[in-house]
Each structure stands twice: as C-alpha cells, then as structure tokens.
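Appendix C: a fully annotated inverse folding record. The material below is reproduced so that readers can follow the format used throughout the book. The structure is listed first as tokens, followed by the designed sequence.
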C-alpha cells in the first residue's frame, strides 16, 4: 500500500502549501538548482507553475524541471546565474496542493492522515495516527495509544484495511506477532 505522499503540517493563509524538499546546491553555471526531496516519495512537478521558498515562502515561477542522475534540477524564473542559484542554497521548497496532480487510488497525503482515529475491524478504538515513518520496504504508521506504548503498524494491505479520509478513520487488522506482549 503506497499510502503516503509528502506534505507538511504547515498551514498558512493563502495557498495550501506542502513542504516538498530543500535546495542543496547550484547545478552548472546557468542558474539551475538541485532539489532534495524530503520524502522517499518524490512529488511530480509536472503542471506546477509556482514554488515557494524559505521561511517567508516567497513565490517564484518554476520555468522547468528535470531529473538528472537521480536528482531533480529546477529552473526558476529570474535565476540565470550560478551566484543567484547559490543564494537559494538551503532554502525549503513548498508547493501549493492545488497545483499537484491527482493521487492514485491508494495514495494519500500524510498530513491528511495524521490525527485519524485507528480502529480494529470490529470497530474497537485502537489509537490515533501520530506519525508516518519511511522505511525501505513500506511506510510504518506510528499509532499513539491511551496509557500504552505507541504501536508501529506496517502500511501494507494485510494490516491497513480501509482509509476513510472524510471521517478521519483508518481500519486495521492486527496480525499475530505484530504487537509486543503487553
């Protein structure tokens, strides 16, 4: 289940912004910058026209982007020279959710899942989704449970049975051996 796509919890007035990564360095002499995605699930920038940079989330027009040797390279309007690109080094990069393409059927933005109540298949409340951890094999949902240690649930079809964003509810099946003895 590829259920998580990056998206920060940053809420501000205006555009619905997602933190997608950070500018790591300039690339070449013509103003391109290298974007390091903050998630192992990179966001496609196809159709995106504006990116927002730094703490102030300054809008800049995206002229183009490409993948080069497993990195994303961006061309930003007004950034034509290496020294201009250098000024963006270390900047967080945000995108407006409304400019992102549609998600696949089993994909969700992490920030839409955080805080959802986790219930067992019989309707028993299990906890609340606190965080999502990225691993090489699959994502892991960190579930806060009342008066118990957090539970770690793999985001796989055998465990995550249903996600109802409208009602902020995730239905799970606990496989034998999934939880430590309590």
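Designed amino acids, in order:
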């Amino acid at each position: 289940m590829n259920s998580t796509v990056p998206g920060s919890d940053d809420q501000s007035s205006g555009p619905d912004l997602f933190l997608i990564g950070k500018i790591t360095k300039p690339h070449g002499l013509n103003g391109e910058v290298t974007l390091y995605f903050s998630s192992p699930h990179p966001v496609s920038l196809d159709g995106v026209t504006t990116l927002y940079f730094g703490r102030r989330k300054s809008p800049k027009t995206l002229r183009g982007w490409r993948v080069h040797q497993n990195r994303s390279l961006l061309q930003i309007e007004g950034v034509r020279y290496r020294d201009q690109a250098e000024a963006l080094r270390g900047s967080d990069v945000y995108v407006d959710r409304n400019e992102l393409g549609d998600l696949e059927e089993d994909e969700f933005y992490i920030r839409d899942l955080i805080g959802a109540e986790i219930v067992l298949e019989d309707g028993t409340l299990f906890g609340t989704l606190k965080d999502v951890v990225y691993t090489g094999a699959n994502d892991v949902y960190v579930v806060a449970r009342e008066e118990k240690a957090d539970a770690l649930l793999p985001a796989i079809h055998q465990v995550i049975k249903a996600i109802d964003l409208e009602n902020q509810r995730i239905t799970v099946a606990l496989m034998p051996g999934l939880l430590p003895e309590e």
